[in-house]
Specification:
Blueprint: E1 4-5, E2 23-24, E3 26-27, E4 33-38, E5 44-47, E6 79-85, E7 104-109, E8 114-115, E9 120-121, H1 127-150, E10 157-162, E11 170-176
Parallel strand pairs: 7-10
Antiparallel strand pairs: 1-3, 2-5, 4-5, 4-6, 6-7, 8-9, 10-11
């Protein structure tokens, strides 16, 4: 299917953050790539195909101005990171959890101790705030998955939320067969 542009929910993203030479807002399910979800604007950015650049190996920090494949940037703290793998595109970071490599997978990074919205640390001792923070990240993951559904998936696709530990991860959170 043809790629679909994502629509921001509120304000447009700040151009000072995104490295447009590496990113696009046009979602594609045709190739593996990394992506960023701007929690302030609700816009989804993915690594674009470039000559001699594999969009699946671009670091999330490289997608931002001032970042590289070796050094991060503070701006990354407001973006939820994810990976998209179409069928038969190689290994998927799932803490060893078995996944069907002949299907597509959307992997959302979960960070229970970091609030992307407030850009602040969430202590493990504050269970209520940590739960609210995790629920918010799950909701953003669902928004990203819905954007991929609108992009016209042509193959079975599952999405997973991957935390720092396997015990903090949820596999096959949702699966769609078009």
């Amino acid at each position: 299917m043809a790629p679909v542009a994502t629509t921001p929910q509120t304000d447009p993203p700040t151009d000072r953050s995104i490295n447009r030479s590496y990113c696009t807002t046009v979602l594609s399910t045709a190739y593996p790539h990394v992506g960023l979800f701007d929690v302030q604007s609700g816009e989804t950015w993915i690594a674009r195909k470039r000559w001699r650049v594999d969009p699946a190996t671009v670091s999330h920090a490289r997608m931002l101005k001032g970042g590289s494949d070796f050094a991060s940037t503070a701006e990354k703290d407001r973006f939820l990171c994810f990976w998209f793998h179409p069928p038969n595109s190689g290994e998927i970071p799932t803490h060893g959890h078995p996944v069907a490599l002949n299907e597509a997978h959307l992997v959302i990074r979960l960070d229970p101790q970091w609030s992307y919205r407030t850009q602040s640390f969430v202590p493990t001792t504050d269970a209520r705030r940590a739960k609210r923070n995790t629920d918010e990240q799950f909701a953003w993951g669902a928004m990203i998955f819905e954007a991929y559904l609108r992009a016209g998936l042509t193959h079975p696709t599952s999405y997973h939320v991957i935390g720092p530990q396997a015990s903090e991860s949820v596999f096959d959170l949702r699966r769609v067969v078009p």
